[in-house]
Amino acid sequence: MIVFNKAEYDRESPNRNIIPLTAELDEQGRLEIGGCRLSHLAKRYGTPLYILDEITLRATCKAYFNALKKFYSALSLPLYASKANSSKLLTALVAEEGFGIDVVSGGELLTALAGKMPASRILLHGNNKSWQELALALDHGATIVVDNSHDLQIISELVGNRKLPVSLMLRFTPNIECHTHEYIRTGKLDSKFGFGPEQIESIFKKLLACSWARITGLHAHIGSQIFELEPHRDLVGIMADAIQLGRSMGHPIVDLNVGGGLGICYVSSDDPPSIQNWVKNIAKAVTVSCERRKLSLPRLICEPGRSVVATAGVTLYTLGSQKHIPGMPSYLSIDGGMSDNPRPITYQSIYTAFLADYPTQKVIQEVILVGKHCESGDVLLKNLYLPKSKSGDILVVFATGAYNISMSSNYNRVPRPASVIVFNGHADLIQLREQPEDLLFYDIVPPRLSSLC
Ligand code: LLP
């Protein structure tokens, strides 16, 4: 049960709330976020509409930044994993909050550079980076996280006769189990990412012979939407061993990057750790592991994505058709679906939703909320209890700031929604709504068939 009372929210760790910190009801009981009435935003910008609450986003960044400063005595740097939601403005906002950024493609890298993230705070990941992506990173001075020997081969050719050695981080698969959806677990041995524990020594050896390479950091990421603290504690111990080995072989390893993974609340039964506890747990593990091995403390880097941006985001839809089948919950259709939020069909994710203008009215119906796509699996939410509703009502789905827009598609040639940012009663567009005509832009009819259309 959600209480729309700001006094009840966890202001220190927004990932522990389902709704943004500024969500409240106006005198008529209608939902507002960032001081903007949701149904007004729907009218002004259309639906589906992604909304980002600046106050929640900034509070989350500050929580990470301050916790690292408080609980870790050496240098630290939080990076925003931009795969969660990548845009120029988001980059600029997290940069202003002192974050760096993790990118996994040329597109995310260009966006980070366009958002004025200093290259010294950009990390390029990926298990199959292209020549172009690696060249772009090298040209701008972003750090490359080497995932495999294919990366090393391309980098060595790109580096050519450059005099300066290139600083690289190595990605390592620690063989750690965590309880999350199997598609978003990455720390197990059978993962496609990184070097396994049995390969690490030979890679360190091989790299000693490469005068152009300086291994300055180690990276691992064990999974996403994790509610436990132990896996990261275990991870740190394994990484400290690898740092000890690398340093003993002569590599100047100064960075320890533990990846991301902190979970958030999608529904009220979710109970993730706070940002403070997550950071404290890791900071303590690094300190203790390094003391035990008599290692100087590395710079501690973490890469949260979901927990930075998910709770700051909501999506608005307009209700459309209904289908009643005797003895069953009714189908209620929205004007978006699996193209703007593919998480339910991909991971069976569940969400919390309300009617934006009647969030506290007595619920009278159980419905199955379905999208408009031509696919029976296009179900956004099952077992949703709503007050009496009609076509045209605005529905809000919470905690959609991460892995929604960034995973959206044009399935059925449905244009992507617009995005707005809200703050103190102001709303501003940060991403234009695609138009159906835009989707024809990349279609080409070869001249020999041009008589057909
Ligand atoms: N670092 C690396 C190397 C990663 O692969 C990821 C996520 C992160 C950081 C950020 O993890 P986070 O803090 O967001 O958990 N599409 C899935 C999530 C995939 C996560 C992939 N990697 C979803 O919608 O649940």
TrEMBL record:
The modification N6-(pyridoxal phosphate)lysine is found at residue 83. One of its GO terms (molecular function) is diaminopimelate decarboxylase activity. The keyword Plastid applies. InterPro entries: Ala_racemase/Decarboxylase_C, DAP_deCOOHase_LysA, De-COase2_N, De-COase2_pyr-phos_BS, Orn/DAP/Arg_de-COase, PLP-binding_barrel. Keywords: Decarboxylase, Lyase, Plastid, Pyridoxal phosphate. SUPFAM superfamilies: Alanine racemase C-terminal domain-like, PLP-binding barrel. Pfam families: Orn_Arg_deC_N. The active site is at 374 (proton donor). Its cofactor is pyridoxal 5'-phosphate. GO terms for biological process: lysine biosynthetic process via diaminopimelate. Transmembrane segments: none annotated. Residues 67-310 form the Orn/DAP/Arg decarboxylase 2 N-terminal domain. NCBIfam families: lysA (TIGR01048). HAMAP family: LysA (MF_02120). This is Diaminopimelate decarboxylase.
